[in-house]
């Protein structure tokens, strides 16, 4: 199997991490691959190359398309792929019509199908995204669910002293881009009513200054740590007491399965992805989006009730092992790719 991956993407972000994890998992499984992407994240580029996967760089400029079109064509000619996997909407707009039978558009959000008009196949991360894609007019028989997996390695907990956090203090960890959709302002407001609880926020984004100002105004700046973009998520997860996921908009949310895989209790808002994935009071606590009091109460319950925390962890791990492991992802991806290969090879 030969697969060409095409992604524009941001420098950092959840979907970009999912693409990277997917390429690395498929490389381990022996799939021949090639990647066309932007040049703005050297760490991601290095990891792909270290896995033995050739990578080609392109600007993905919407207004000046020829350089990207040429890069994709050259990568295609070099690999002769059975499948071309376009990750997210901007990449999909560069899909040539001539290759549509072997092209897959990947939806990490509720994108318009028109962005993948030259893809005969469509993959959504959740059942709700699959319903959305079909509602957009894609043929039901060529739409599949392809969930990601939690690429969390076992790691020792980070030394709390490095983050100026007392060993005995309860810690709520948020892994999120600093964007309004992530509901981090709700988390800070909830923390204001949780004396002694520290909040670690790992991520970058446009609201950094605004969120820091809010923390100061709420009087919690001394208990909030803005950690920036981190590559040691496993160590952060191992060191925290609860994972807080207050997103207002989240088509899936890899944080859910990362918390489960790391044996950490999860408190999440009922955005579309988490609401469709978790079972409230069983493998997570689910609270209404934007509800400060509900989030505060749920975090307080998990921190103070050891039996509840233990139950959420045990059931979360079962949920993870049932459908979100690397093995499950490889199996599902290869099933999709074999279908695409067979379809593309069929006589018209």
What does the model show?
The protein is α/β, with parallel strands linked by helices. Helices cover 41% and strands 17% of the residues. The strands form two sheets. The protein has a seven-stranded parallel beta sheet with strand order 3-2-1-4-5-6-7, with helices on both faces. Helix 6 packs parallel to helix 7 (208-218), helix 6 crosses helix 11 (292-304) and helix 9 crosses helix 12. The two termini are 22 Å apart.
Briefly characterize the structure.
The chain is an alpha/beta fold. The protein has helices at 14-28, 42-50, 66-79, 89-92, 127-135, 184-191, 208-218, 233-239, 254-261, 272-277, 292-304, 306-323, 326-345; strands at residues 2-7, 32-37, 55-57, 83-87, 103-107, 121-124, 143-145, 171-175, 198-202, 224-228, 242-245, 266-269, 285-287. Helix 7 links the parallel strand 9 and strand 10.
Q: Tell the overall outline.
A: elongated
Distance between the termini: 22 Å
Output the CATH class name of the largest domain: Alpha Beta
The CATH homologous superfamily of the largest domain is called Glycogen Phosphorylase B
Taking all Cα atoms into account, the compactness measure Rg is 21 Å
Side by side, the strands of the main sheet go 3-2-1-4-5-6-7
Whole-number total of structural domains: 2
